Amino acid sequence: MDCFGIPAPVGSYFEGSIIVWKSKKIVFTELPVRSISEVSHSALEVMIPLCAVVAACKASRGIGFRGDLPWGRKLPNEMKHFARVTTETKEAGKLNSVVMGRKTWESIPDKRRPLPNRVNIIVSATLQPSDQANGVFVVRSLEEALEVSRKENVERVMVIGGAQLYQDALKHPDLSTVYLTDINTDFECDTFLEIDERQFQEEDSIDPAFPRDIQEENGIQYRYRVLRKL
């Protein structure tokens, strides 16, 4: 930005410094730069939105029980909502990536994996790339999953579980959005989500994909929420 408060274009000069776009910030180099080629490639990377998609019991924040969803398969419409949120993109021809731990991957029925029309990435310390079918990436960390997502030129990175991966995403500086389904019924759980909602602002969505009213299936009530990181 120049002295008049006017945004300067990427790569332009001002007072002997070059301005680049990186991770939501305008970064000023401290030393004069002679050419744009001297700026590191990583500094010019466009940040891909990092999101978490999770359903949790409203009272306990329970998200799992014995390796499965606490409510089992009783919420088919909520599962369709999950598929829509993780699949839809704004730009034609682009895909989102879905990032999950090994146990989450193994909890998906064989006939439904890999999740279609999405780049599937498994974060695991034990699986080897050769263990998985073509088109499924195996990495060791969320950071590696983000790197794969950048190389695959995805539109958004969607973390879908389990608990440790959610925690890594919630602490990550690039996190932008949590798509949360509040389950109003309590279930027995052994895995929980730790989220401080004071760090987020709930969006008053007018998107029909996120109706504000209470949903109900098989006697279980729930509500869709969109939380934007402050």
Automatic annotation (TrEMBL):
Coiled coil: none
InterPro entries in the cross-refs: DHFR, DHFR-like_dom_sf, DHFR_dom
Pathway info: Cofactor biosynthesis; tetrahydrofolate biosynthesis; 5,6,7,8-tetrahydrofolate from 7,8-dihydrofolate: step 1/1
Top-level taxon of the source organism: Eukaryota
Enzyme kind, highest EC tier: oxidoreductase
Catalytic activity of the protein: (6S)-5,6,7,8-tetrahydrofolate + NADP(+) = 7,8-dihydrofolate + NADPH + H(+)
Name under which the protein is recorded: dihydrofolate reductase
MF term (GO), any: NADP binding
UniProt KW Metal-binding keyword: no
Gene: LOC114827969
GO terms under biological process: dihydrofolate metabolic process; folic acid metabolic process; one-carbon metabolic process; tetrahydrofolate biosynthetic process
Keywords on record: NADP, One-carbon metabolism, Oxidoreductase
